[in-house]
Amino acid sequence: MRLAVIEQQPDAPAGLLGEWAEARGHRVVTLRAPELGAGPWPDPRQFDAIAPLGAEHSVHASPDEWIAPQIDFLREAHARDVPVVGLCFGGQALAAALGGEVRPAPKPEIGWLDVEPLDGRAIAPGPWFSWHHDTFTLPPGARELARTGTCPHAFVLGRSVGLQFHPEVTPAIVEGWVRGGSATLAAHGVDGDAILARTRAGAAAHRERAFALFDAIAAAWTSVRRTAVQS
Fold first, then answer.
1. What pLDDT does residue 231 have?
2. Is the predicted pLDDT of residue 199 greater than 70, yes or no?
3. Is 153 a catalytic residue?
4. CB-CB contact of 169 with 128 (8 Å)
5. Among residues 78, 132, 166, 206, which one is catalytic?
């Protein structure tokens, strides 16, 4: 599989998603959104799947010139049956591309949290890492897969999946975010040292959980396409 990863900023790389892809024999192509800017963006049909990653930016409020073209790119990918798995900002961008709304969340969610699975065991309860101030509404026709008491955390529409949490994080990624986001943590009364301790203690289990999620999403891409072809 040729997987296009859309990196929004250098401190939010593919992490475990990249490790999973390498372990499964997939080829990762990194598209750096700020470099692509207003475009032109590539033809999504060059790729077998697309994964827009997280960002400190806001889909609905940030003025960066690469956000709207990225939403258009994701919309075209989905329309052309190239599956998208969006992670946090990427999940919000996917929701916007498919007709959902991105808006401020009732409250920020920062740290490790459990989600409520709503569709069997499609999404494990967690814990999953979260760091977001915005949320999305479900696109028309989408099925909600998981949520917290604050907002939706996962949806599926066709072969595309939007996630609000960050399955891709490694200890190094979290450590960088905690260092860089110390003022945000303090403003919201979040203990950065506690986040780091839990991240290190649960790293092996989280890696296994993330790989299982990526395996399930990739398997669904194949099964949905097979069903569509057969019907």
1. 29
2. yes
3. no
4. no
5. 166
Distance in angstroms (rounded) separating the CA atoms of residues 7 and 32: 5
Catalytic residue among 57, 109, 151, 168: 168
pTM exceeds 0.70 for this model: yes
151 is catalytic: no
SS (H, E, C) the chain: CEEEEEECCCCCCCCHHHHHHHHCCCEEEEEEHHHHCCCCCCCHHHCCEEEECCCCCCCCCCCCCCHHHHHHHHHHHHHCCCCEEEECHHHHHHHHHCCCCEEEEEEEEEEEECCEECCCCCCCCCCEEEEEEEEECCCCCCEEEEECCCCEEEEEECCEEEECCECCCCHHHHHHHHHHCHHHHHHCCCCHHHHHHHHHHCHHHHHHHHHHHHHHHHHHHHHHHHHHHHC
Q: Is 166 a catalytic residue?
A: yes
Among the listed residues 88, 109, 132, 206, the single catalytic one is: 88
